[in-house]
Amino acid sequence: MAIYNIISSLKITDFLIIFVFTFLGYVFRFYYKYFTRPNPLPGPLPLPFIECSYLYNSGDTKNFFNLLNKKYGDFCEYYLNGKQRTLISSPEYLEKILTPSSKDDTFMIRFPHSEGYEEYGMVGRGIIVNQDIKSWRYNRHFFNKAILTPSFNNEAVKWTNIMTQELEGYWKSLGNLNLSKDN
């Protein structure tokens, strides 16, 4: 009852003042976290709520990355969808990060921790999202032995050709159908 009395005694201007102060508090917190982050890289200044999407015109990812590379160099960071992302556009740095070596685990964690991976049971499995180094090494060794062999590649090419020919046959049979409504 006391809360109802307090809320009912507020006027529209009071709600507006609360909203403005909440918004200003959010903006202050957003920029405080941005300017005091550890190891800052160069990159565009994000705006609250829309972050760096003002640079991302009409979904053209290639132009977006080219713009960032020209303006900020080989390394830069940007914010999209509530997450800080790092753009690496130099091939020699990418080779070091994406190395297939199981001895160097410096760049082992390639994806941030997500509760969704736990819900799907993907934590500790496979080679892409696996953050358990021992399990990753075993899976990586198995992956290299089983899938990266020439016989597997030849079989994959053979089946791709078979499926493409089958799909082409379906397209031809669809082309022979008379689908006009003037029957």
TrEMBL record:
Membrane spanning residue stretches: 12-32
User: Gene3D superfamilies recorded for this chain?
Assistant: Cytochrome P450 (1.10.630.10)
Write out the entry's keywords from A to Z: Membrane, Transmembrane, Transmembrane helix
GO MF assignments: heme binding; iron ion binding; monooxygenase activity; oxidoreductase activity, acting on paired donors, with incorporation or reduction of molecular oxygen
> Pfam families annotated for this entry?
p450
| Protein name as catalogued | Cytochrome P450
Organism expressing this protein natively = Gigaspora margarita
